[in-house]
Design brief:
Order of helices and strands: HHHHEEHH
Number of strands: 2
Shape: elongated
Helix content: 55-70%
Radius of gyration: 19 Å
């Protein structure tokens, strides 16, 4: 399952990747020199590049489907720390979506949860370290 876990780690990193900047500072300066208005530059910067597709291992796909269906259903502490998925909300999603969740799918889903909690809490800490 080590290879499958690495795939799950890649899924979490892919899903939480920052948008790829389309233009460098030099590109923006060149736009200004060529006469682009600030509104034109702002509109160009608002466009985000789509990341390249990531192909999930077939054995992980059911867990990833559940993860994406439940994403955002987190329990969060008063200080902003993510504790994990709200399991009753996950159960409702499973019933309503009719996803087939085997014990293997559930274990992989829990791995995605652990990886996500770790990543989001790291970001939370680094964002609040500067305050």
């Amino acid at each position: 399952m080590l290879f499958a876990r690495t795939d799950l780690e890649n899924v979490v990193e892919f899903f939480h990747a920052d948008p790829i900047p389309r233009y460098s500072e030099a590109d923006i300066e060149e736009m200004r020199e060529l006469g682009a208005s600030e509104d034109d530059i702002e509109a160009a910067l608002a466009e985000e590049l789509e990341p390249e597709a990531y192909e999930v291992l077939p054995e992980n796909w059911p867990a990833v489907q559940l993860y994406l269906a439940c994403y955002g259903q987190f329990r969060i502490s008063p200080t902003g720390q993510v504790w994990g998925f709200d399991i009753p909300a996950v159960d409702i999603e499973i019933r309503r979506s009719e996803l087939e969740v085997t014990s293997d799918t559930w274990e992989r889903f829990k791995t995605l949860q652990v990886l996500t909690v770790h990543l989001l809490n790291q970001r939370h800490q680094s964002n609040h370290a500067h305050e």
